[in-house]
Structures
1.
Amino acid sequence: MKIQQQGPFVSLVVARVGLPADRMADEALLAGLSAGGPDVGLAFVRRFQRQVYGVALAVVGDPTLAEDVAQQAFIRAWKAAPAFDPRRGSVRTWLTTIAHNLAIDATRGRKATPLDPSDLVRLIGAGADEPEAWALREESAGGLRRAIRDLPAEQGRAIVMAGVYGLTAHEVAESEGIPLGTAKTRIRSAMTKLRAALDPSEVDHG
Amino acid sequence: MADTDCDVARESLAELALGTLRGEELRRVSAHVEHCKECRHEVTAMVPVASQLLELIPGTEPPLGFDRRVLSRVEHVERGTGPLTRRRGVIMAVAAAAAIVFGISGWLVGAGSSSHHQNQSQVAADFVQQGRDVGRIEAHGTPLWLTVTVRGTGISGPVTCEVVHEDGSITTMGSFDLVGGSGTWSTPDPEGMANVTQAQLVGTDGKVVAVAHFS
């Protein structure tokens, strides 16, 4: 069932039961954007703004441009809310993907810059952090960080450049000073290994 | 069953799932995946990895008042009274990239600068997607009517029609559904058509589907 069909129900709940917007489920918040009043909109933005802005900032690198991209992502989500299908993923993933695509569009045509090794360390949590912070990251990102750490370093950089920073294989090749074919192979090999690590039953090892 | 097309396409499936393919390679690999069940399955299986990669990015608190500014922009869009303004530099960069990626073409039928209907720009241009003509946008008549016709885009679902102005601002004109890659949408009395330089169709994932340039 598409979330659009939940809209009137959500509005009814908000109006009659007085369920605070900040306690509503993600899908209910999204469905209530157009009919639930400004409190629903505020709750929706506040719930996801750290992740959306964080994605935008990581890709574009400029706080002013990142805010513009993040705002655009919320506007896109608001307009596309009726088409959201929860069977295809969570609201958070959907919204983050929108922000990521917009951020990549905003930086298209840029000159590729080498990935700072400290960025990779920060993203995969390989630094000497507090155990509590480590545990939180492990919980939120599952085994992906472990899987990236297990990759050969050059493959880890390639998949992070492409998947996180949105660089094309050409840009990865330029940044790393390697042939295009090598960059494509590193991205493909890394993806295959990450798939195997996350869901071994899905991967054709042939 | 693997054939030559599959062998070639498989070199780029990971990039397709990550959303980093561009231009002719994107068109070629997408076309292959569209009819190859095996490769489509591969890409589908890679998408969760691509999504999880984004979860690695740490959240960052935006500047104070971000939430209110978002609602303010949403309100403008809802009322249809305010353009979704982006920085000019961004628009120029996107437009330049779009010109390369989509092979923009189009033409200006008439010109005017007044916001009054009769004097407003009466324009027409072709929507182009990866070098292919996939439709047309026209604003004409008195009162002014805006008509968008799209075909053969290869995507289905809602798209938003936006116009980009000379100062880099963007006005959202409206949304409509593409079914089997095609769709038609029109509206009378469109606001925000003065001084437009290009129109673009944007999918729900934020990606530009096609661009029409008024030159």
2.
Amino acid sequence: MVVLSVRGLTKHFGEVIANDHIDLDIEEGEIHGLLGENGAGKSVLSSTIYGLYRPDKGKIFLRGKEARIQSPLDAIRLGIGMVHQHLTLVPHLAVWENIVLGREPRAVLRVDRQRALAGIEKLLEETGFRLDLTKRVVELPVGVQQRVEILKVLYRGADILILDEPTAVLTPQEVDQLISTLRRLRAQGKTIIFISHKLREVFALCDRVTVLRRGKKVGTLPIGEATFELLAEMMVGRKVFLDFPRENLRGEEVLLELSGVFTDPPGVPLREISFRLHAGEILGIAGVEGNGQSELAEVVVGLRRPRAGKILFRGKDITAHPPKTRILQGMAHIPEDRHRLGVILDFSVMENLLLGFEDQPPFRRGRMTLDLSAARAFARRKIEEFDIVTPSERTLLRFLSGGNQQKVVVARELAFEPQLLLACQPTRGLDVAATEYLRNILVEVKRRGNGVLLISADLDEIRALSDRVLVMYEGRVVGELSPESDEYHFGLLMGGKTLEVS
Amino acid sequence: MKYHKVPPEILAIGLAFLLGIIVLLVTGYPPFRALGALFRGAFGSRNAIGQTLTQATPILFTSLSFLMAYRAGIFNIGVEGQFLIGAFVSAFLGVSLRQVPFPFGTLFSLFGGGLGGALYALFPALLKVYLGAHEVITTMMMSYIALYLTSYLVNYPFKASGWVAQTEPVAPSALLPKILPPTQLSLAFPIALFFALFVFWFLERTVPGFAIRAVGLNPEASENRGIPVRRYQILAFVLSGFVAGVGGGGEILGVHGRFVDGFSPGYGWDGIAVSLVGRLHPLGCVLASLLFGMLRAGGMTMTRTTKVPLDLSLLIQSFVILLVAAPYFVRFLFARRRSREG
């Protein structure tokens, strides 16, 4: 039975059509994926259903009756709840307080704690969730916080749940937990609208999927009839290639060599890291996040000093060199946390492209003046070459989409033909088209005879691109695998087990 | 009306005057006569304009000083201290350099004041960068040290004979010439304007300026891109102290002619507010310091010719600061009106 349907929904923002005559039918008790690239109109559609926006045209029907949803309050009253990408909990309140907040059972002048707890316990029993209700929210990992957020929505009596890119903030393990949580809710008879641009999750979870592209609905299909390639093509509007033929181009020259590197806390201490990276090679570093990969990256680019061990770059000992020297010698870095290490959000696109090169000719004129016309010309060239979508080179980076911000980073890092590219989680948070673009770039760097050290928690990515893979666990390299090894072996090593010699 | 096209600072200023009028009405003074006197005193005559610019000069220096450090992500609350140290060093050099002929005596004294301020800012800079001592605490404390240290120096070792706690007068060859007699306006004002342009140019068009802005906005990304973060934090701090020191020197060599105990009514502290009103932009600082100079100069005339106390002009200044410091509040106020109209 169709529980929620949308007919001819249209929403403009100024000149932009965010939703263009969208029809959508959601069946009772299904998990319905809403899939699309960034800017396809998924969030606008779901926010309109939740009453955050009012449609310019179109109608929403609930169980066959037209629903007038003017605000989230109306939506909640009608049993529609939404879990936002960025959580809306009060960090210093307890879990149970957050859940009942705004709907507290009252006892004269205070909150009736007993009744509140009883209500939540009942909910926990029904859903099979397990949570310590008295813990403060700040003490919980993000994945658990998200579960609190879901409970909060259920407590308000929602039977249709909208989750807006819920996995964007989660680690892979937390994603798995979320998926089983949502399956359990489906078993309870809840209806779930799951917004994502990650195909894997949609396949793991959804019964049917609707794809949007540039504000229009491309189609709805049962997951059984969908393939990875088909959905990617529907999202992007053309065929997408995320896998590349592996070419062996490995050269003789050792670009990067770590030997016996140890580090101290803070962070995961590295223990006896040794490896060699050759020219023309992509060396993948796999592992569950938080096993020393970030620390390894910091050591390689010079943001962290090892306690012991040596780092050689193109045969030279650079262990004591600061980041600047390494950059000038031909090392490039796509950091995992773009906003923290990669870009300056309140700098313009041009300034971000210039960052770190500002004191080099041709951008420096004389002893200390900037040649702005050289910088502008450089920026315009890079915007064109890397197809960065921005109104102009003067636009603040803050106003670019995530994919375009990442392109700015890549354009800058590859500007002066580096010999070594350290790429950390390079496609995290990017949509399919941007992911394809970035993977192409990494392969291109390798084809030019340079080296790539690829650190990623996305095992598919590592296996698709790398020539060799090292697995890290608790600050050590615990083994080397060929990318063709089966997933089971990767799983063992990543979980800290050693491979039996057989 | 498109309120969102008007910068919130302008709205804040308008609102501050409106509140001033209300206060006048409530307290029983004729509001428009008082404001008329204030504007006359600020630019009604040659003298009035000279007064306004004279009052604007020290706060233009101090606001630029605050801005310089702020752009590197450093909250230099101690502008007042660096201003006072600079003033004292300038006075000392001005008194000592009797043999040095005119432009050089002035230049040395002014520059010396700048160096004094810079050196005084170097301490908290090093404390911050190498020991992690927060600059808000250290610079504020050091402002009091500077206040009492200079006070001690002019009360005891460097006191001129007489009843007043002040140094000997600066040699005439070290003074900044007056440029609009009979007002107090001296060459210090065009120098301050030049500093504003220079700071603008430095931040936007030079390598260290670029690096300072990068460090201020995102130190971690700057470090990742090879910018020596600590070095530029120190540089910005020291330059901030230099500008404050020159401001102090300008006030001594341009207006007072000697270091008089307590000559600064808190120009350094005002500079922080002026800098914020000026949106932390060098040219904004010029406009904001002119506004504050106008309120000070006009306020004095207003008090003299009507019976409205000087406090009114201080009140308006405070309203401006409060409303500018609360941009969200102002935006909220006007956004509500907009949505109701729309």
